[in-house]
């Protein structure tokens, strides 16, 4: 990555861009700041505060809307809709992920064409509407239809956010930003159990049971925030100047630092031919399988933690409340690790660390005889899997180039995350409650899959970097001379 001093030199050397502004008598922001370094930090903070909070808020709501079925289940929905019959609850979970997987890549293509604000606000309002609809269903079949449509509209949001964020920052800033965006969402989502507990107290209002109010109120909240987001979400760096978010000078600076870092500030339109070419890169499939393997336990803990805790002897309300502290612990650990990873420019070591922590937590939850210790295992398991979500997203983002490839890669990676959700929904079977030992073993096996894939990619990346260093590379990495993989 280019150093700050290199960026400063490039900035001072861009005579055409900045001299023209001075000739016109316009104020040069650089001259008003003590140093270009201070200018750069202030500009990135400006982007941070405009880009991350609104995306984080919307994704927090998306996570709540996706997993609050587990809260509604213990709040009376299980009995009223007879979800205990056969595999009804599992079907209601799985059906969400079918459209979620299928429509992510088409959504990223539309995102670039219609603009980030237009598309992300639209899909948010759409899933909020079907979230609201779940509060009025009277049968398992109707619930299943609502879950399918919820997945259809949510499909475009997370990959779109990852694609957008990765285009704004240089490689060794991106894990911290992805962590801030994702972990804020997880933190707010972790309190969904407490929110659900409060909404359960509306039991009987207008003749509705408490579980219905969970869906109704949270659906309305999603619609409201979706409308607000249209005014706040910024577009890609090459379009942000058009809406007045950045000045001409600021937009040039952002694009300039990305060009120095990896030469893909300019959009290369995604075509189906390019899509097919990018999908032939085995790296993308390895990153996708890793992401699947870490989202699976993330979904499992979100969907089944209240039920596991319920099996420890607590009632439904307390089980929902006790689901929140492990998430808070996970967010704190994961953000600290993200800061360290960006500071020291490493990816693989932190993924390994969090996999090991996750495995330890899963085994404790599965086998320790004391409920208090098993509850502590949920802390470790949640920390390991949630921390690896931004880590693995950053691992891919650092090791690919071109915006079209980022679009395909983010859609594929997060699409495989949906497969992780399907696995979590099916291996945690009703007959294995409340400990779910088989499901915890499948989850553990997937952590070992991450370690195996990571060993393969790390070895390949190390060899290719050595070839670049030795001048023996037959072709440049990712088509860019001097580009090296992040290990």
TrEMBL record:
Keywords: Membrane, Transmembrane, Transmembrane helix, Transport
Coiled-coil ranges per UniProt: none
Molecular-function annotations in GO: transmembrane transporter activity
TM ranges: 51-69, 89-105, 117-136, 148-170, 179-199, 211-233, 284-305, 317-338, 350-369, 375-395, 407-428, 440-462
One Gene Ontology CC term in the entry: membrane
Membrane topology label: Multi-pass membrane protein
Residues covered by the Major facilitator superfamily (MFS) profile domain: 51-467
Record Pfam families: MFS_1
UniProt xrefs under InterPro entries: MFS, MFS_dom, MFS_trans_sf
First-listed, main subcellular location of the protein, grouped into a coarse class: membrane
Basic and acidic residues bias (residue ranges): 8-21
Gene3D superfamilies: MFS general substrate transporter like domains (1.20.1250.20)
Locations listed in the record: Membrane
Residue numbers spanned by region Disordered: 1-21
PANTHER family documented for this protein: MAJOR FACILITATOR SUPERFAMILY (MFS) PROFILE DOMAIN-CONTAINING PROTEIN, PERMEASE-RELATED
The protein's name: Major facilitator superfamily (MFS) profile domain-containing protein
Protein's organism: Helicocarpus griseus UAMH5409
Record lineage: Eukaryota, Fungi, Dikarya, Ascomycota, Pezizomycotina
């Amino acid at each position: 990555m280019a150093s700050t001093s290199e960026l400063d030199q490039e900035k001072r050397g861009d005579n055409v861009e900045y001299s023209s502004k001075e000739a016109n008598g316009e104020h040069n922001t650089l001259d008003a700041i003590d140093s270009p370094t201070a200018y750069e930090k202030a500009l990135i903070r400006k982007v941070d505060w405009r880009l991350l909070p609104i995306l984080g808020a919307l994704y927090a709501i998306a996570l709540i809307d996706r997993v609050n079925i587990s809260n509604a289940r213990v709040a009376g929905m299980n009995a009223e809709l007879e979800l205990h019959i056969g595999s009804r609850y599992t079907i209601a979970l799985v059906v969400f992920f079918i459209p979620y997987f299928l429509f992510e890549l088409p959504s990223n293509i539309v995102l670039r064409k219609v603009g980030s604000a237009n598309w992300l606000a639209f899909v948010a309002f759409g899933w909020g509407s079907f979230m609201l609809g779940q509060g009025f269903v009277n049968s398992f079949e109707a619930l299943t239809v609502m879950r399918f449509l919820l997945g259809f509209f949510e499909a475009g949001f997370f990959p779109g956010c990852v694609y957008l964020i990765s285009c704004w920052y240089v490689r060794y800033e991106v894990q911290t930003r992805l962590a801030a965006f994702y972990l804020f969402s997880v933190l707010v989502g972790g309190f969904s159990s407490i929110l659900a507990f409060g909404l359960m107290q509306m039991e009987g209002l207008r003749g509705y049971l408490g579980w219905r109010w969970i869906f109704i109120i949270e659906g309305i909240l999603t619609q409201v925030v979706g409308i607000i987001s249209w005014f706040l979400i910024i577009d890609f760096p090459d379009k942000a100047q058009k809406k007045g978010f950045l000045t001409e000078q600021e937009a040039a600076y952002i694009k300039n630092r990305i060009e120095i870092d990896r030469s893909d500030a300019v959009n290369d339109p995604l075509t189906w031919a390019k899509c097919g070419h990018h999908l032939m890169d085995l790296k993308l499939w390895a990153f996708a399988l890793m992401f699947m393997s870490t989202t699976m336990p993330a979904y499992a803990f979100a969907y089944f933690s209240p039920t596991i805790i319920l099996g420890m002897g607590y009632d439904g309300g307390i089980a929902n409340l006790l689901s929140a502290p492990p998430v808070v612990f996970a967010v704190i650990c994961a953000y600290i690790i993200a800061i360290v990873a960006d500071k020291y420019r490493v990816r693989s070591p932190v993924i390994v660390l969090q996999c090991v922590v996750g495995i330890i937590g899963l085994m404790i939850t599965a086998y320790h005889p004391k409920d208090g210790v098993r509850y502590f295992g949920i802390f470790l398991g949640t920390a390991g899997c949630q921390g690896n979500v931004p880590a693995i997203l950053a691992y891919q983002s650092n090791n690919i180039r071109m915006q079209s490839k980022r679009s395909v890669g983010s859609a594929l990676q997060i699409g495989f995350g949906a497969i992780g959700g399907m696995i979590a929904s099916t291996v945690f079977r009703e007959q294995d409650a409340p400990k779910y030992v088989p499901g915890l073993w499948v989850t553990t096996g997937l952590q070992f899959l991450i370690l195996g894939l990571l060993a393969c990619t790390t070895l390949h990346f190390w060899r290719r970097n050595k070839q670049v260093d030795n001048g023996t590379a037959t072709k440049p990495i990712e088509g860019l001379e001097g580009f090296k993989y992040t290990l």
